[in-house]
Amino acid sequence: MGTETLVRDILPLAYRAFGGTMRGKTLLQKRLYFISVILGLDLGYDPHYYGPYSEEIATINAELKSLGYLSESVSGWGVDQRGFELARHDFALTAEGNRLSERKARQNPELVQAVENAARIVNEAGNLDYMELSIAAKAYYILTRLGRKATIAEISAMLPKFGWSVDPEELEKATSFLTKMHLVQQG
Length: 187
Fold this sequence. Notes:
187 residues, 3-stranded antiparallel beta sheet, 8 helices, alpha+beta
């Protein structure tokens, strides 16, 4: 099964597993990143400004919106120091989107169970905001690239290679989240 087909199946199920909504594009990306990690699936993630990012997730999400399966609301909250408007894009399954996710669930009960279990693991590890979840995703992405255990200092030293900068205290909190998800061990 290709990445695009897999994303088409998983994305509506992920919305369903997280209560039908995603508060922001970054949160959407990071939740799906951790679902892909837990399930051992390649959903097309590569390094990006806010951590691992999948163009396939972004494209299929936009497609679901254009087909009426998702509604989108935009909340503006000011302008950054460079003059760019800051906004959060929230998404929610529509009635048709709920029917789509139910169809996907009936067609592949094993996948829906796996996605729901992965979403439960993410939720139980801690209610992180999108920035904290981004930091956790960056830390785990680096660990996968190193291919071995690493200290927080080693992870911190690798961050600039991907264009990322993270405060050490934030990185410590992120590794605590990863420990709760059983993706890393402390010590």
